[in-house]
Write a structure and sequence with these properties.
The structure is a homotetramer. Chain A is an alpha+beta fold. The first copy, chain A, contains seven helices and 19 strands. In chain A, the strands form six sheets. A five-stranded antiparallel β-sheet of chain A has the order 1-2-3-7-4, with helices on one face. In chain A, a hairpin with a 2-residue loop joins β9 and β10.
Chain lengths: ~350, ~350, ~350, ~350
């Protein structure tokens, strides 16, 4: 439920306006040098209030280590990381206490559990992803040490679409603008549209693309825990995500087999390569050593200032507009979360693959 | 790995040309009336050789029960179902023994395991889905008894696309044609295109759409085991699946929040409803009682008769054309498999939800 | 690894001299009234320094709630409980940094992980059981609300043995003395022996017996997760536990079938009962509604002041005597831990059993 | 439920008088040479009718392989092994259809599931252990290849007790007599007592001791999945098992710390050893490289010919005597089952330990 992974297994906890958000990592490899600055920098990438296209909330994102580190290294015991909640404005939510907000999980949580922490959305809030980013940062430390890097970026906001393939982009430019799009022209258009939409009290969705480089062959466990199936679950579990595709994805539908099949060829160093990468780096659920490539679709943020029709908890029809400090477009902030989830899948699959050696 | 589900937990086994394909269902509810005919009819829907647009292999799909049934009812003990393989032509695969077929998992299996059952693709073969359909049929029996029905259909083959929404379709027509498209005009076009492509020795992909009706509120477990995340994993684990979307899916990207949010309203019987269903029946990972709706993209079949460039197991570049009895378009036969996986997710989530009562 | 339970699933974290010890409970039922005082009182029962037969360490055992409670009730979201470590004297352990203490896990942790937090034993310390007692207290709250009570007591210390059967004891007397033996005469003997042994710088083991009353029929999952098998694992996982037996246990060996079989009979209220309870309340791994009864053997504490031969981390033979504040007999403090583990098994089995309804 | 192990994960299925008993092994290492004769010989050791001290049922124990083997080797795909039931005499059980047999799980199965396969005890029958022995044989193949051997033997039947320590026994003699006791004098006494008890229509319990040699350091996962905790669960899950102890076990209670602690010393080859082995080869839940030693207590068989008082399914008091072909003492046949469960724990812990490398 609140755990993910088979060996590198994380359990997240905490509510938007509770004491803290945190994660316990069980099955963490021992003897990883714990880089505090790196973890903090990852948290900062997810943090709200980074720019004028995101929410003005100034969430405190300084993390604490509760367990699992000794002399600067992981010990193999559960690693617990935590961020205290200190800038909540729960009173902002008082008037929403009895309202089922459209697009949110107020109604479904209430029905499922018979109780609901309405403050800031409680457990349904995307603030839970703080814990994922913390865990993902630990996973990335290890992946980087064995040469695997993960690069997510915004490839579409509403109708502004990056037509270029990831191979044509300079991935080092991703963090050069607030919308995290590696094409500076497109980035400007996206930013302008987000600002305009915010002014209108509305919101926008978009697409995050992600490429993982330095992939070994052999990650992924047939038949149900295929690499892209587990990755799909990981990504779809991120708040607001509505779709996932690996490699050619939905575009595969309008290709013929003779076009879609990636021909095998030998590199000069006599390694096996594919000429194209429609597979997205996965064959039969197992990584083939090519770049892992996938996309995730995010819906427009549900919290909008425009008036909406809904029901309250007493089953009265009411109208609601949702004030408060909300992102008009969550997609740029989803970038580090997508990377975190990808990192968690990869490290788990790497550890699972060790049994075959 | 070869198991799926937390409570209604299936484990599948068997290879394409081995002794048998089967499934053990652990956590099966006791006292379900086991309908042998229904299970057989589901198997028949998946079976190859149903029409001239599919493979001419005549796989024997008669199943056996090895355990878990007493006096025609499930007992709560592991339920084991099996289909013997009796019409394999393993010699067809002899010449492929040393070839890494493009688009297939020959290369990745060999690298991961250091051994590979090449006969009919071994464990990587889509014949494994026989076991899923068997288990799914059992799940369906229970779901039907509590009013939940699952309807998958082909909504696109290559560029022939069903523009109508599922609410405008007559779902009873799905099985009226071999391509399993509930629009008879589109079905004819699809069939014609598939036949033409077969003649060319090439293959086509497509989209399967699926709607589940009679959904209760409350299915799905935050935060990682969200209903659509688990469903996404289930569907993406089907051979050849490249993409999954829930509700509006990738189309959500070009909608604004004010358009996308589904307004809550009261029905005449004072139940909570949404006016639209962009969510696809899931809010915050929990079913909201509306129709569950999702789509899955399938790539064109990898086995084609056209000549392709590849590598053999001795790392020589070679050309290959893959003869044998292959489907030019797997999508119609994917329909019962998609339904089976959806049924497995739903029954598991139903059982998991019982702890809250 | 650091998790226990399938549905009511706990994950514990923390080291003896780290920041904190804590537990995340995933799968906690919603709407349980959270009784802070009760949880604190359970912690106090485990706390060191309760009497002059236990260690004089004054561990701070005030707990914090980090998540999962709203308006005094559980929400169904992960419940996180924590005790900060504030009275550690890590410098006491400096001289043991390079020593493999006999009977302890220093050597095996070092070999397994390649790193070891030596301060207070790190993760191997019995201080980890703080987290189990916290989680167990939550489980007990629920169990009590449905009429299940758990009573553990000390039935043997070294050679001083309580000969009476649990049915002949006044279980309300358990907490009336520091050794937690419900027979005051035996208790005095045990206390005297423990004090004498402490003076000698040596240590003692003993037996904890446990009875659970108000048991429903049907708990336990054949074939591997039998109630007593899961209970055995739970109890054996407690530090220093060397043996577990259910019902007649090892005494069953010297009984004949005609003696051992518990005859079924009808109660006046027409319920099924057994005349004797050699089974300990479990038939075929499933509770039969009789009292659940089991025993656990604990070895003498490994930390003793007497000189012992051992090896240091540089593989030199050395002699060591272990100063510091250690219990000469851990058994009385094991009582609440045994109860906690039993409660965790019972609540999990109760929730697992709900699927059959 | 019907699965055991985290990585080398077995799922057993089948009922005593159903079609078959079998096991699926998921997570089986690839490239193990599958030794058919060895598996058959292990099955034969468990088989009833081996001697005149066991049941005269002549169960057919020839196994089939359904999946997972290619060219005589395991492939890493699920390995499915099966024994068909061909000599059932279900009619023997007809008169027991409505009886809750004392000491058996008839009553608890009926209450838990609301349905019960009474034929031969259905799923509650010890015939289920056929599947465990099959899986254990595969585990042993691998363990033997890396130098780990497992030796269980009967150390007590009723009051006839083998006083010698395992180090004083010739373990090669275990299979030299039908009672599987490596001391031929004691074996004779045991056999005589069993024959006499059979004549009386009664039954006997006993103790199986087990030693595993060639143990590596590092197996076992703190804190809940300690090696001896997982082993305890495995052994306690065997039918009729009432107690488990590791190393000194319950005898530890009457030892002082100074006696019980195993002093570390260096071997001539500069490896770390302990002078004594009261720990039974486990420190803090992790193997320390010494022999793993444990004991299991088995109750007398519940099926006896003597008249017993009980209840029928209509809640009438009745008397019953249980005819049929039952073992008067199951303990000798439990020997290969204990070994199988130990092998399954060890291989799983070995694979889990690989993640740390």
């Amino acid at each position: 439920m609140n755990s993910f992974g088979e060996i590198f297994r994380i359990t997240t906890f905490g509510e938007s306006h509770g004491e803290a958000l945190g994660v316990v990592i069980d099955g963490c490899l021992p003897n990883i040098d714990f880089n505090f600055d790196f973890v903090q920098s990852e948290l900062n990438r997810r943090k709200p209030g980074q720019s004028n296209i995101s929410t003005s909330r100034n969430e405190d994102e300084t993390f604490e280590v509760l367990s699992g580190i000794f002399n600067g290294k992981t010990t193999g015991s559960p690693l617990t990381l935590l961020v205290r909640n200190i800038n909540q404005k729960s009173e902002d939510y008082d008037k929403l206490k009895d309202v089922f907000r459209p697009g949110h999980a107020d109604y479904t949580y209430q029905q499922k559990y018979g109780i609901r922490d309405h403050r800031g959305g409680g457990r349904q809030s995307a603030r839970e992803t703080v814990a994922r980013v913390l865990a993902g940062a630990v996973a990335k430390m290890y992946l980087q040490s064995i040469g695997i890097s993960i690069h997510a970026y915004v490839s579409q906001v509403y109708n502004i679409k990056l037509e270029k393939d990831y191979t044509q982009l300079d991935l080092k430019q991703i963090e050069s603008n607030v919308v995290r799009c590696p094409d500076s022209e497109k980035a400007k258009e996206m930013i302008a549209l987000i600002e305009q939409t915010r002014a209108e009290g509305d919101s926008l969705g978009g697409i995050v693309s992600c490429v993982c480089k330095g992939m070994p062959v052999g990650l992924g466990e047939p038949v149900f825990d295929k690499l892209h199936a587990q990755l799909g679950k990981a990504i779809l579990s991120i708040n607001a995500c509505k779709g996932f595709e690996i490699g050619s994805g939905f575009d595969a539908v309008t290709m013929k087999g003779s076009e879609h099949n990636d021909a095998f060829e030998l590199t000069e160093s006599k390694e096996i390569n594919t000429k194209t990468n429609h597979s997205g780096g996965v064959l039969g659920g197992i990584s083939n050593g090519m770049d892992l490539f996938f996309k995730a679709a995010f819906k427009p943020v549900s919290s909008i200032r425009k008036e909406q029709q809904t029901i309250d908890t007493n089953y009265n029809s009411i109208d609601v507009n949702i004030d408060g400090r909300h992102d008009p477009c969550i997609v740029p902030r989803a970038v580090p979360i997508v990377e975190a989830m990808a990192a968690l899948v990869l490290i788990d699959m790497l550890l699972r693959n060790k049994m075959y050696r």
